[in-house]
Write a structure and sequence with these properties.
eight-stranded parallel sheet; two-stranded antiparallel sheet; 11 helices
């Protein structure tokens, strides 16, 4: 079965995480686990751009933006013109609330270029599903992928599903979310095209994330949607 990894990084992440993967390691992982394409984001967007140029068609660029840094916002259009197909926001990393007004210029540029937003979820006080719901309500014409669909907290996972059912422009990505049955619930109650596979490499191993889809209770056709079709549509691949 073909796979698109909707969320990955390269490099070393120190501190509490102490994880990392090189360019060569990422490509080896993709080849080993039949990952046809990887949506890659890094705080240094030039690293992602070079990966896109070296591996066209395999590495899909997701533009990392800090809305609190005017330089990264001002550079958005130049990067989007170079082939980035989405925008990554990480409220937890940069310490802003996911529904803050400072995000509005970023989403307006995303709307102008018709690219989706991918936003980290699951950690208070910055990235709660309810906040992302308010952001989606304010920008109904921008597709917003809730990375981790609430992450590891059951209440936040439930809230991610509720927000996605309420707002049709919210999509879900399941890396790091431990409840495999919620993948099936999302497919059946949010939308068959609004839940997608991701690894959050190097934080999680592909086989762990794959098993959650395989054991979710979805049939083969539905698994194809989660593993490949939905991301291909979302990222306009």
């Amino acid at each position: 079965m073909k796979i698109i990894d909707a969320h990955a990084h390269i490099g070393y992440i120190g501190g509490w995480a102490d994880v990392g993967i090189t360019e060569e390691g990422l490509l080896e992982q993709m080849n080993k686990y039949n990952i046809e394409r990887t949506v890659l984001c890094n705080e240094d967007n030039d690293i992602t751009l070079r990966m896109m140029e070296r591996h066209p068609g395999r590495i899909i660029g997701c533009l990392y933006v800090n809305p609190l840094d005017p330089k990264t916002v001002d550079s958005m259009e130049s990067y989007l013109k170079k082939g980035f197909t989405s925008v990554k926001l990480n409220p937890l990393r940069h310490a802003y609330c996911a529904d803050a007004a400072v995000l509005d210029p970023v989403l307006e540029i995303a709307k102008k270029y018709n690219v989706p937003i991918c936003i980290h979820s699951g950690h208070p006080p910055y990235s709660l599903p309810w906040q992302i719901g308010l952001l989606a309500e304010r920008h109904p014409n921008v597709k917003i992928m809730m990375i981790h669909m609430g992450h590891g907290h059951g209440v936040y996972i439930d809230a991610a599903l509720k927000m996605a059912r309420r707002y049709s422009n919210i999509y879900l990505e399941m890396s790091g979310m431990p409840m495999q049955i919620k993948i099936r619930e999302a497919y059946e109650t949010v939308g068959s095209d609004r839940i997608m596979f991701g690894t959050d490499t190097p934080f999680h191993h592909p086989t762990i994330e794959m098993q959650k889809v395989i054991t979710s209770g979805l049939d083969e056709k539905a698994q194809e949607d989660v593993f490949y079709n939905n991301a291909a549509k979302f990222f306009s691949i």
